[in-house]
């Protein structure tokens, strides 16, 4: 693979994590305004954004060990994001439930991608 191809793949995942964090923000903005959703929404926004931010840091790391640590954090933040998504109250709205399922699926895929990257680091 050429360096251009490697850079394209890296930035594709950067873009994918960005779009995911953006979609989470849109979703939380549409949920019923309850005290629980307010607090849980803040948590899911933080953790979803942290996935991409840590991936960007991983791409700028100084060594293999640092890279692996940042990727572990990405995977950890993805797991945490799933937790917070599950806690959000969709108010029984089928569309919100469906959107939550799509977000959880995307986050699960990101978690698996970061897990595969970690396996390649060994």
Molecular structure report:
Helix content is 86%, strand content 0%. The chain is elongated. With 122 residues, the chain is mostly helical. It has one domain: de novo design (two linked rop proteins). It contains four helices and no strands. It starts with a helix and ends with a helix.
Q: Layout of helices and strands, plus pairs?
A:
Blueprint: H1 3-30, H2 35-59, H3 64-87, H4 94-121
Summed over residues and divided by their number, the pLDDT gives a mean of 91
DSSP helical segment count: 4
Low-pLDDT residue spans = 1-5
Q: What count of structural domains?
A: 1
Largest sheet: none
Beta-strand share of residues: under 5%
Strand tally, please? Answer: 0
Structural class: mainly alpha
Question: Helicity, in percent?
Answer: over 70%
Report a brief summary of the structure.
By secondary structure, the protein is mainly α.
Based on the model shown, name its key terms.
122 residues, 4 helices
